[in-house]
Design a protein that fits this description.
The complex is a heterodimer of chains A (114) and B (113).
Chain A: E1 4-7, E2 10-13, E3 18-25, E4 31-37, E5 44-50, E6 53-57, E7 64-70, E8 73-79, E9 87-94, E10 104-105, E11 109-113
Parallel strand pairs in A: 2-11
Antiparallel strand pairs in A: 1-3, 3-8, 4-5, 4-9, 5-6, 7-8, 9-10, 9-11
Chain B: E1 4-7, E2 10-14, E3 19-25, E4 30-38, E5 45-51, E6 56-59, E7 62-67, E8 72-77, E9 86-94, E10 102-103, E11 107-112
Parallel strand pairs in B: 2-11
Antiparallel strand pairs in B: 1-3, 3-8, 4-5, 4-9, 6-7, 7-8, 9-10, 9-11
Classes of the chains: A mainly beta (114), B mainly beta (113).
Chain lengths: 114, 113
Amino acid sequence: DTEVTQTPKHLVMGMTNKKSLKCEQHMGHRAMYWYKQKAKKPPELMFVYSYEKLSINESVPSRFSPECPNSSLLNLHLHALQPEDSALYLCASSQRALTQETQYFGPGTRLLVL
Amino acid sequence: GENVEQHPSTLSVQEGDSAVIKCTYSDSASNYFPWYKQELGKRPQLIIDIRSNVGEKKDQRIAVTLNKTAKHFSLHITETQPEDSAVYFCAASINTGRRALTFGSGTRLQVQP
């Protein structure tokens, strides 16, 4: 399996809702990433997990809460989001973090916050 | 931190022509430079990458060149086809430090049939 998968593909939520995005890879990669991508912009790094431990938090608001239950799974818990948080959320993985390793992206979850 | 600038922001070429996209980076410690292609509504996909110990790399119609002294790298696509139409992002990363990848702002390539 050489793919990163993400669920759901689309998500619409209100500002008071709690939802979670899920990411999975079975390539044996030990680094996993969350990116946020707004329309016509490059992906912006949010979080990096290395060996299931959070190694980078790019000053992301606490309404975004990442979780790495095991080496294959990465979640992003969402709570009390704002309309400006609407974006494509991309998960990626690589063999290791912070090295010259290729990052493989998932298809993304397109989030709309009303 | 690292800053990556990418030009042009849009590029339109005729089918069969070549396309060149250029990026510059600020941190001389950067040593890995991937290029991603993102079609509308799809995930970024790695198309080619180069490491700082190499000056040029080619894969069929795609080539990347790196000039470490000038701190710039370029993507060259020859014999362009309509299916090459997409947004292309360059990126740079350092082997150590906080940032995994810093992306350029993207180039929207349109190949006219």
